[in-house]
Specification:
The chain has 6 helices and 5 strands, in the order βαβαβαβαβαα. A 5-stranded parallel sheet has the order 3-2-1-4-5, sandwiched between helices. Helix 2 links the parallel strand 2 and strand 3. The structure holds adenosine-5'-triphosphate and magnesium ion. Adenosine-5'-triphosphate binds next to helix 1, strand 4 and helix 5.
Length: 176
């Protein structure tokens, strides 16, 4: 399924997506309406406290968007502008939840413009009910036994549950 009218342009939506939340999904769907192609680019860094590995995150996002032909999932490391150049992207999409996101995003957008003047950053606001959602908060709530349904796609919830089960099995057998 292709969403909206193709405008002939490719945009990159970079992030950790650990895990993908309904806030991310909201921004991806809005971007898919504006751009011919949107590449969800999972940042690969050696984060110790990550819940999912980058390949797992990619598999999850691909699964969620398998019916959207103009949503692609990829990974990158290093400078975003280098990746965007390689992909011949015209824009970087970022989500803005609250004023607190603004300062950091503003700095990043201007730094990226300094590094690559032709790359435009496009900010998008999610639906109101997702403005308080972050991956960090999802992980925290879930690890304390709270429900995350309605806040992440069902696929993500399944993966999180399986991860938790595997984790407790590992603990009970005394593995590290
Ligand atoms: N609920 C949301 N609504 C709109 N944009 C969002 C939301 N959550 C994340 N984003 C945006 O998605 C992009 C990728 O963000 P990222 O992967 O860091 O997610 P995050 O939820 O902020 O994760 P973390 O809590 O680990 O920082 C960023 O542009 C971020 O602003
Ligand atoms: Mg973040």
């Amino acid at each position: 399924m292709t969403v909206g009218t193709p405008s002939g342009r490719l945009a990159v939506f970079p992030g950790s997506f650990d895990p993908l939340t309904n806030g991310h999904v909201d921004i991806i769907l809005r971007s898919a309406l504006l751009f011919e192609r949107i590449v969800v680019a999972v940042l690969v860094n050696q984060e110790k406290r990550a819940l999912f590995t980058p390949p797992e995150r990619i598999e999850i996002i691909r699964d969620v968007f398998c019916e959207y032909k103009n949503v692609e999932v990829d990974s990158f490391d290093g400078l975003l502008v280098d990746y965007a150049r390689r992909r011949r992207a015209t824009a970087v999409v970022r989500g803005i939840r609250a004023v607190s996101d603004f300062e950091y995003e503003f700095q990043m957008a201007l730094m990226n413009r300094h590094l690559e003047p032709s790359l435009e950053t496009v900010f998008m606001m999610p639906a109101e009910q997702y403005t308080y959602l972050s991956s960090r908060l999802i992980k925290e709530v879930f690890s304390l036994g709270g429900t995350v349904s309605g806040l992440v796609p069902p696929v993500v919830e399944d993966w999180m549950r399986r991860k938790k089960t595997a984790e407790s099995a590992r603990r009970s057998t005394g593995e590290k």
